[in-house]
Each structure stands twice: as structure tokens, then as C-alpha cells.
Amino acid sequence: MKKILVRDLKPGMITAEDIYSINGQLILSRNYILTPESIERLESFAIYSIRISDRVSTPLQEIINQGPSAKERVRANPDFVAFKASFEENVETLKTTLNQVVTANSNFDAENVISQTLSLIGKSEKSSISMMDMLLNMRDYDDSTYAHMVNCSILCNIFAGWLRMEQDERILATTCGLFHDIGNLRISEEILKKPGSLNFREYEVVKRHTLEGYSILSSQNLHPEVKNSALMHHERCDGTGYPYGFTAEKISRFTKLVAIVDVYNAMTSKRVYRRAICPFAVVEDMQSKEFSQYDPDMMLTFLKNVSNSFIGNRVRLSNGIEGEVVFIHQDDLAHPTIQCGQKFLDLSMHRDIKVTAII
Ligand SMILES: [Fe+2]
Ligand SMILES: [Fe+2]
Fold first, then answer.
1. How far is the CA of 209 from the centre of ligand 2 (A)?
2. Rounded distance between C-alpha atoms, residue 19 and residue 17, angstroms
3. Domain for residue 257, yes or no?
């Protein structure tokens, strides 16, 4: 890692840190491969120097428009291939371990599953690809209850970092995410995977996964927050959640954290009854509920960081045009500025155009 004057930057160099404007607005995220346009953008924000990674990207020609998209580059990267393999191994371990608990009602080796997830996170933190990009590229894969829990667990770890939690709290948040939906293992697959909407009786059965989860975890040697998250991750700050309809003051910080991650992860994953929803549409939807159902400060931190993680990704717009996300407006997260060829399209000024997919 070295510090370089912006005037000496070259396309293809990789940022070693998040770069903020004087107002605290994110201009480029860490691990961003510089293009002539992004260097110009740094100059326009009067940034004098930045830290650059010792690694150099593939030649620039390969990363601009006619080259592979960010998604294609991530999927071809050996770090992602290794992440995917470890992720799947983690899902298998979780499945084997938890099935024993549910069928034999015995204690399980929570430490083993947690340490496997933490090692997956640890290894990936050293990669040139950000963890958010890794997760974004797991969207099209299997989304069983187990994969959902590993996904949420990693996202809880990242989110806890954004909230500047101490390391032991980050591990606790990761554990809360890992076991939050364990109660689903006592709900019939027929109902969980039913295509189409659930009737009243079926929905009542699904809601029981919170109580079942608490009952499975109650005899395990786990932190009370982990058990509470399984019980209360569907409670909402305005009292509209279940199983008890608790309001904000009765819901712990860890459970509020899991609730935000859970709903984001569920909406951006494909389900038997619908395709995955574009993350920008999810951000817009969650932003509208920000001040009622969820902790507003936590939600804002989450949505800002999630949105910023899309800088550099190629997207398709509702008018059919494709371009790269170059700027996230911190007061209008779901309507970024998109670079299409030589032109910049500010979606906050063109509200009829939406981002429909990250490609
Ligand atoms: Fe749940
Ligand atoms: Fe969940």
C-alpha cells in the first residue's frame, strides 16, 4: 500500500481505502479499479492524494465497457471461487449439525459452526474482492434455510462493523444471524417452499418458527441474545411484528440488527414464488419503512453502506440502457448516478428511470 498524488494516478490502479469527500460523502470504495473517469472525479472533489494497493488490476482495456462486467470479473476470480466453495461447506456443516438437533433434540456443537463461519469471513477479508461483492454474487445460488442463515450471519458481521461494534459484539451479531431461523427446521417444507401466497392457517404455522427457534436454542449453551434473536427477529419497532407485537424498547440492539439484515437478505434472494428483487428497489422500499418498523439510525447506516458497496457495479436501467454506478447520493440512496459510455445519468433527476438489475 502506498500513498500517491491524485495527479500521478493511472487507470488500473486499485484503491486501498474508502475515499471520502470533505463532507464525508463516499467517492470511491476500497478495492475500486481506477478508470480515467474516476480519477477525474477525485480531482473534481479536490482530493490531493490517496492510498493505493500494491496490486495492479488487469489492463484497463479489459474493464471498460466492452469488457466483462464487475459481476463477471468477480465470478471468474479465484478468491470468489474459493469463497463459494467454503460457503457451501459451511452450509453443509450447518445442515448436518442442525438436523441432528432437530431430529434427536440433542445439544449441538455451536462453536464448530460459528468458527467455520468466522474463518470464512476472515479468509475473505484478505481478498481483493469485498465481502459485499462476494455476497452479491451468491444471489443466484441455492437459498435454502441453511444458506440464508450463513448469508445473514456474514451480513450481520459486516453490519456490526459498520456500526463500529467491538470484536466480541461482532462475533455475537454473527452468531445471532447464523441461528436466527433455526425454527424453520420444524416447519414443513411444503409450507416454506409453497409457490404463491400463504393462506391464514399456513401463515400462522410459519410465524411459529420464532417460538420453535427459541425452544430449540433454549437448552443450548449460547448467549441469551442468540436465543432472543431467534424469538424476536420478526418483531418490528412499531409493534406490527410477531410473535408478541413488541415495540422498539423491548427489542434488543442485536435483534434489531438481525431484523434489518434478514429482510434485506430475503428480498434480494430468489424465492420459489418470485425472482430476486434488485437491491436498489429493496433499498428504496426499506428506506420508506426506515422510521417506523426498524431502528432508524441502524437502518440508515445499513442502507448507506449497502448502497455505497454498489459503486463500480454495472447495472441495467428500466429504459434498457446499461451503465456503471459511479456515485451514490447520500440523501437519495436508491437513485445513483450512472455512467453510460461518456455520459453521466443522474437518476435523482430522472425519477422515472429505475435501476432494474445489477449485471
Ligand atoms: Fe425468520
Ligand atoms: Fe430469516
1. 10
2. 6
3. yes
